[in-house]
Fold this sequence. Notes:
This is General transcription factor II-I repeat domain-containing protein 2A. The chain has 352 residues and is an all-alpha fold. It has helices spanning 6-16, 22-35, 51-55, 65-74, 77-89, 107-117, 119-128, 139-161, 169-186, 191-194, 203-219, 221-225, 227-231, 253-265, 267-292, 296-300, 305-314, 321-331, 338-351. Mean pLDDT is 75; it is low at 12-20 and 50-63.
Amino acid sequence: MSSQGPKEELLGLLTLSGQTRGEDIANAVQKCLEDNGIDINKIVSIETDGARSMTGIHRGLRSNLVIKIINSILERALYHRQFKDFLEEIDSQFCDLLLHNKVRGLSRGNVLQRFALCFSEIKTFLNEKSIDHPKLEEDKWLQKSNFMVDTTIKLNELNLKLQGKDNPAYALLEEVVCFEIKLLLFKNRKQYRDETNATIDTSYFSIALKNMKDGFAERFDQFKTNKSTLAFIVNPLNTNTNEINIEPFGIDAGSLQMQLLDLKTKDLRSGKFTEIKNKLEELEVQKCMHIVQQKWTALKEIPRVEVLIFGAWNSLPECYSEVKKLAYGVLTIFGSTYLCEQAFSCMNIIKK
């Protein structure tokens, strides 16, 4: 832990994670640890369900016209049945709309995409019901709506990459950084301006994407600062100890430097990490191929990244105790809230 007291640092971690009631949660976590005889000074990271972090303080898409229209159709049994019959009559590629889940998750992107693909059918149906939404006739609104659909789908794709049980924090950080860079490329796409005849300020999309990029930069700033520390588990041979944050792990800096130098200079030891990097690259290639070919069963059979990494570090003798201690500490850091949310989902199923 740092020079702060355990309680204060725990509060800081929870505050940074986006919790508005960080102090209450810190008290509850501290009591739980004390009741179970767990030393708070040995805690490296804390994971919560991330509700506030994911939904934010603004309602955003929930109050959007798109969601309002979708709910107006799906929440009325008669309208819903008539709309599905209408889609069947015109031989639409879809048989229904999707309902927006107000809690969290990937539903919003899927809902918006389905709305965009069924846009003409929805307009026709609403006109037949004499339901008037003037915005649907405005080209500028349609352009912005399409932009929202596209960017939300991109966020969904990122979200999927950040889920799963065996994703170390360093790998998730790489995905986030890569997405930030891609945001700069998205703004050069002109499909939103070319789809209709509307004249819209060309800076609108650039400003929106810049704001999104700035939001990512601010939210993940702490992770970027510790990038070298997170990557240590797979790249110890090219690590500068001055760039590593060892404070949370209770490691002796002098011993770490000596052991790491020994590790780098002995081929028998260093070869293990050259080999692990090659294996990880092979796994990434296999993973990409399975995704492209939609071989989901084969994707699940790919060896877990964490197992390979743990295996390499476990093979080192105890004379590298400080180096191993740092590696294990980094490996125990939660990369995302996936496991915590999955646990809550299981609890809800049992409760029902």
